[in-house]
Design brief:
Two copies of one chain form a homodimer. By secondary structure, chain A is of the alpha/beta class. The first copy, chain A, contains twelve helices and 17 strands. The radius of gyration of chain A is 22 Å and the shape is globular. The first copy, chain A, has an eight-stranded parallel sheet with strand order 9-8-7-10-12-16-14-15. Chain A has a seven-stranded mixed sheet with strand order 2-3-4-5-6-1-17. A two-stranded parallel sheet of chain A has the order 11-13. In chain A, helix 3 crosses helix 4 and helix 3 packs across helix 10. Chains A and B meet through helix 1, strand 3, strand 4, strand 5 and helix 3 of A and helix 1, strand 3, strand 4, strand 5 and helix 3 of B.
Chain lengths: ~350, ~350
């Protein structure tokens, strides 16, 4: 990566406001599709990445995590929290920001809000998984949990898989109403349901994305018919699952990064050596995905650092053309690298110099 | 921590330019002293901290690291790189930024440049260690390595320990000249030397802070006289040490966080069970520091996350009164936390809304 000597101190920053404008300018479906391509590309070169389970700091109220990764040329990390009780205080359950840096110099090259970007990459990753795992020609998706992630999931599955109908259910009807309203006029047949059972009628795919931190049972065994693809997004930290264990035992299970999913995913309910397949192995053709029309496939998605990396790469390749970013003076850049102290002294304001 | 509902999206940011102005407004010595107090306070409650060795991503050219920690109420982390060859390209060897967040909500509360702040906290920590380990009434310090860290070390030792004379040596005379120039008129007797031996004459303390990534021998055994305190700062990553092993074997060795120092410090030259004392144990009085006037004491400093946390806490308590900060729109804050999608849609510019 080449550095402009006149702007060594500058790191481009995409604020929340700019990210919203970027999404709107590019178009949410086009951006989901673009990020999905970057995710799929990075999963294809999975073995190249420096992978580590996220680095968590747990408290009673939630968790704060750092998710670093590197492909040897570019380094990326995300800061993200998960605080289920936040919504009661009018705060987001999940907020995030992240950055990319040049491995050769260690200099940051992009800083960005990642609450919105995470919503996009999560939906894009789900759709990539379903593309490789769900029944061919799936047209109907049930969506259990109609919170902040739901519209992004619906549109990702529409644009990447060709889903035509989404069937919404949430224990809070207001959430379903909000989701239906946001999806109106976007080319999807949106059906609001009053139970999970009803939502599942005729669906080839079910997405579960609920937020409570507990061992919940959003889906029970009898609700899961043959051939279903389950896109399980909400079970993503220790003590938080959405599916009854019996469903897992009947399913082909696919994960992002096994060591992390054993801790955070639905499979925390299973033995540590229960066989699972990593998604990248399916995408590269090294392992089989769906083995029969009747098989139940489960994508036990918890979100992995490589996906954030992909989303940040997409952003890095596109933010400039939108014009929606600002320059942050973030890196100390003395004329003589050994003279940090002198640089500070020379920064005196006229008042400080006179005193 | 209470949040203002009108500014949930805002994270205060201290840029490089603002950090320089803050240092100048507060005064570098006063700031070093203040940070040293925060460091000492945090070392006193060491056991409370969530500690983990830094999370590194190594490459041929250097390392990028994340250094997280938490005291249960506040969470902090630092991004930092170490690229020894960077100076050849006119880049900093080390650049850094960091943040604090509220553990209860996971929301970031401060983002800051940390290249300058790291220089300050490194010097402050060294002085805190020397205060507890060096001979009483030490007045003369040798400084081997006169790069970016040297002036901060000299002033920290002046203001916190009462050092009156610094004796400078660097293999590059231009570095010594720069350091002497920067320290002129600051109440220190500055002596430029042409060899390490000369620098050590009459010194009760020696600070080594050189930057080459290699097993170097900045100090050899015969140079180290009885009663000396060695403040070894430059040996701070695998494969980078400054002292001959024989010196270690003659010294009482003090470290920040043993698991990290075994990997990164001078003691990487010793067996994994070689006895060392953690500095916090000395500060809290649980273990002895210097045991005799003739003992050689060695602070094998590599820099630990808690020190960055202390420096960020100091900054958090002081940036506002200086006025040198800006507001970053970093956290997505929809009126309804479940309606992230709707928030994005409502951000349309007039042009986007019309199209």
């Amino acid at each position: 990566m080449k550095f402009d000597p006149n702007s060594l101190n500058i790191v481009p920053f995409v604020s929340v406001d700019h990210m919203m404008k970027i999404v709107l300018q590019i178009g949410v479906e086009k951006m989901l599709k673009g990020i999905a391509e970057y995710v799929e590309d990075d999963f294809k070169r999975w073995e190249l990445f420096d992978k580590t389970p996220r680095v968590p700091s747990h408290s009673e109220k939630g968790v704060i995590e750092l998710m670093p990764t590197s492909d040897g040329e570019v380094y990326g990390f995300k800061y993200v929290n998960g605080h289920p009780a936040n919504t009661k205080e009018g705060l987001q359950t999940v907020t995030a920001f992240g950055m990319l840096a040049d491995v050769e110099t260690g200099y940051p090259v992009l800083l960005s809000e990642m609450t919105i970007l995470t919503a996009l990459r999560t939906a894009a990753t789900s759709a990539v998984a379903a593309k490789h795992l769900a029944a061919k020609n799936a047209k109907v998706m049930a969506m259990i949990g109609n919170g902040a992630q739901s519209e992004f999931q619906a549109l990702a599955f529409k644009t990447i898989l060709g889903i035509e109908e989404v069937r919404l259910y949430d224990i809070d009807p207001a959430a379903t109403e909000k989701c239906a309203r946001n999806l109106a006029g976007r080319g999807l047949n949106v059906v609001s349901c009053t139970s999970s059972q009803e939502a599942l009628e005729g669906a080839q795919i079910v997405t579960t994305c609920t937020a409570d931190k507990q061992y919940a049972t959003i889906l029970t065994d009898n609700m899961v018919g043959s051939g279903l693809h389950i896109n399980a997004i909400g079970g993503d930290c220790p003590g938080k699952t959405e599916l009854h264990k019996d469903i897992l035992l009947r399913s082909g299970i696919f994960v992002e990064y096994t060591p992390q999913t054993r801790i955070e995913g639905e499979i925390q309910q299973l033995d540590d050596d229960y066989p699972v397949t990593e998604l990248w192995e399916v995408i590269t053709g090294q392992k089989e995905g769906r083995t029969s029309d009747g098989q139940i496939t489960l994508f036990d998605g918890v979100g992995f650092a490589v996906e954030d990396f992909s989303a940040l790469r997409y952003l890095r390749d596109h933010y400039k053309e939108t014009g929606f970013y600002e320059d942050l003076d973030m890196i100390a850049d003395p004329d003589d690298p050994r003279d940090l102290f002198g640089m500070v002294q020379r920064a005196k304001t006229p008042e400080q110099a006179a005193s």
